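User: structure tokens for this one?
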Amino acid sequence: MILIKEANTPRKEEFSGWRKIFWSIHNFEIKKFLPMSLLLFCIIFIYQLLRNLKDTLMVSKAICSGAEVLGFLKLYGVTPSAFLATLLFVKLANILEREKLFYTIVTFFLSFFMIFGLVLYPLHDVLHFSKDTILSLQSAYPKFHWFFPIIGNWSFSLFYILTELWGNVVLCALFWQFANEITNVKESKRFYPAFIMIGQTGQLFAGIAVMFCANFAQTVGASGKNSGLDVFGTNLMYQTIFVSFIGMIALGIYRWVNRNVLTDSRLYIPRPKTEKNKLKLGIAESFKYIAKSSYLLMLVVMVLAYGISINLIEAVWKGQLKELCPDTNDYNIWMGNLSIFTGVISVTLAIVANNLLRKFSWKTMALITPAILLVTSFLFYGLIIYKNNVGTEVHIIGYSTLFLAVLFGLIQNGLTKGVKYALFDTTKQMAYIPLPSELKVKGQAAVEILAERSGKSGGAFIQSTLLMIAGSGIKLSDLASTLATIIMIIMVFWIASVLGLSKQFEKLTAEKRNR
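Assistant:
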């Protein structure tokens, strides 16, 4: 009884100075906060390691493939698979208890990734279509040129899809639903920014792990005893072992939290069983709800704009990276560098984000992401267009235009994603705060259903449609001028939405303050 009273008694502010900024956690809460942070770290570490591998496999390793297949794979592979995974997740959630659901799903993913690394990849030459078969199909059906590498390299495609589902199911559904269930509102204001800050270091360490595995595999392959060794295959095997090891740690942490945190009444008080579930809207209802509110419509434009534009830029960059690094292991090393850079930017901005949000207006903070994306996209696409028009390799300040394009693309991807995690997502959540209760709940559900899930699909649809219209043999870099124009148009709508939304946000905030 004493412990329960302590959990419900209002507590005076105990934090000041540096601790208020970096560590606003009570000592007795460390037992809950630290394991949850480490669990998020493990999940993000695995996700980033797998994301680097999936892109390397499909763009660099797969026969007759390239960055062009990614749009088709996301639209026609990941999107329907995510829908089916959602249905299966709901079905399992109705059958299994929460703890068993986590173990079942995570074990399934970890088992597949281990089987892929130890069995499917070593046998991919036998299991996949031959190069001649894929080329003959591409020649016979040119409009479907980029579908055949997806089908022909089916195990790589399956790995790509399940990696995307790890992010959707394990990170978004399992972890955050668990966190929301065991964390109250007051705790979440202090815990969640710190969760994200520690969790995002998973990207940084994933990049370091990629570099270690790739370089170690190269060292092993360079020794005289291992001539003819598949260096990337060895690298991939090491990385899948990393995934399994960190995955087992994640399972152990989850079990520890259930046994030691959820049984401590200072840290967790079960919600009443009679409590109503959060509102869930269907696709049709979401469209109707958003159509009634210009406020929500502008939020949708912002979220869609980010999702579409970053996907258009990423795909072109990965194509340029393949051109610069035809060796698969070298390609994977660059992906590791991207993870390290993104992790450093994300963690740094996560530390300073709260202070920036206190000093500057919502409009200023919301404009940072499109402004950075606009400037870096202009430099990135400018180099590619210049390289295409010149037609021969040109050096600028001692570096080739191809190298500079890849370098600027890496900076663009890492910087934009870091800003997105630290500032864009935060300002988006802030935008819901001044809304009336009903609009806040239903509006957020509608935006999440439509915009969050449609961003990647929208970028993939644009890529795949342009490539099918252009015909076989056309690469995304050949469409750089068209893609750059589309992104500039998207940026105009994004910035206009921020400016329009800021006026309503400030008005609603002032009205709420004066009540």
